[in-house]
Design a protein that fits this description.
Elements lengths: L4 E10 L2 E11 L4 E5 L6 H8 L7 E6 L2 E2 L4 H5 L2 E4 L11 H11 L4 H14 L15 H11 L7 E5 L7 H16 L3 E5 L4 H5 L3 E6 L2 E7 H8 L3 E7 L10 E3 L2 E5 L6 H9 L2 H5 L1 E8 L3 H9 L8
Bound molecules: adenosine-5'-triphosphate (ATP).
The site of adenosine-5'-triphosphate has 10 residues, from helix 1.
Length: 307
């Protein structure tokens, strides 16, 4: 079966700035792809290219095996986008917003009704149908904005930072909605800066940095490959000297724990060191290997380092 989206060596520059330097990635039908990367990495640019809103300078995008550039009108029908900036009609109600986008996206009257009945509960909007979009809270507006991306015949949904400004309840609803879509075989491309959402979404992560995909894999495999536990010692007054491998940061000494050893071993060595014993230790912290630590490892890699 063809990939839902196949990116082949995508390149894009703005003036002299090379943002995407050769992005190659396949996203399978029904998969949730979590696109991670620092601010300015090019995530939104890549989404615009995947949805045909922006032409790449080089490379090809294939949607279900067909070139997007050559079949743009046809293929764009199968793509639903909720961009980063919220775009709803403020003077229309929730129901009017959803229905009018359904019509704009080419659904018949009956199809609009069917989609509307499906989408409303997915995003928990049942109680707000007659409310004006302008009167919704920030998180509710975000949910409506994401729901609009579904009001069409889309088989692939792009959600660019859908949980920004959303409270815990709205965020959980959006995550549950994405899981629901994935269970129905819909492919979701999702960007976020909230790393904890990746595990909740059962997403496959693609880490975009320096214009290329530097790593892909499940949350577990990314943690296994790139995360290291760390030990941090905090001191009052002068930091003790002479602990090889420990980095100084304000009033802390921090070490990333290599695979061959354990936090306990490193801690024991440090605490028996005379310089540490003479210093005023105020706190000891062990940080587990998690996605955040993997993210930092990846972030520190240079442009030539691709696994
Ligand atoms: N239309 C444009 N003209 C010029 N530069 C642009 C344009 N669009 C994006 N850029 C630049 O391309 C780079 C990538 O931007 P993009 O918005 O894709 O990053 P991002 O990964 O989505 O960032 P964030 O996490 O902050 O949303 C940035 O340096 C941005 O300034």
């Amino acid at each position: 079966m063809s990939a839902a989206i196949q990116l082949i060596n995508i390149r894009k520059s703005f003036k002299k700035k090379q943002v995407l330097r050769g992005v190659t990635l396949a996203i399978q039908p029904g998969e949730v792809l979590g696109l991670l990367g620092p601010n300015g990495a090019g995530k939104s640019t890549l989404i615009k290219i995947m949805t045909g809103l922006l032409a790449p300078d080089g490379g090809d995008v294939k949607i279900f095996g067909r070139s997007l550039a050559k079949n743009k009108r046809l293929l764009r029908q199968s793509l639903g986008l909720a961009p980063q900036a919220i775009a709803v009609y403020p003077q229309l109600t929730v129901a009017q917003n959803l229905r009018s986008f359904g019509t704009i996206n080419g659904l018949s009257g009956r199809q609009v009704q069917t989609k509307y009945d499906q989408v409303l509960p997915i995003f928990g909007l049942q109680d707000m149908q007659t409310e004006k979009a302008a009167d919704l809270s920030g998180g509710q507006k975000r949910r409506l904005h994401s729901a609009i991306a579904l009001m069409g015949p889309a088989k692939i949904i792009f959600l660019d930072e859908p949980t920004v400004g959303a409270d815990v309840d709205s965020r959980n609803r959006i995550i549950a909605a994405v899981r629901h879509l994935s269970d129905q075989g819909i492919t979701v491309v999702y960007t976020t800066h909230y790393l904890a959402e990746m595990a909740a979404l059962h997403a496959r992560i693609a880490f975009l940095n320096h214009g290329v995909i530097q790593a892909t894999g499940s949350t577990e495999s990314i943690i296994r490959q790139y995360a290291h536990p760390a030990v941090t010692l905090s001191f009052k007054g002068r930091l003790p000297a002479g602990l090889p491998g420990w980095e100084k940061d304000a009033n802390h000494l921090r070490v990333s724990v290599p695979a061959a050893t354990s936090p306990a071993q490193l801690l024991q060595t440090a605490l028996t060191n005379p310089a540490v014993r003479d210093a005023q230790l105020t706190d000891v912290q062990i940080t587990q290997a998690d996605l955040e630590s993997a993210y930092h490892t990846l972030l520190e890699r240079d442009a030539t380092h691709v696994d």
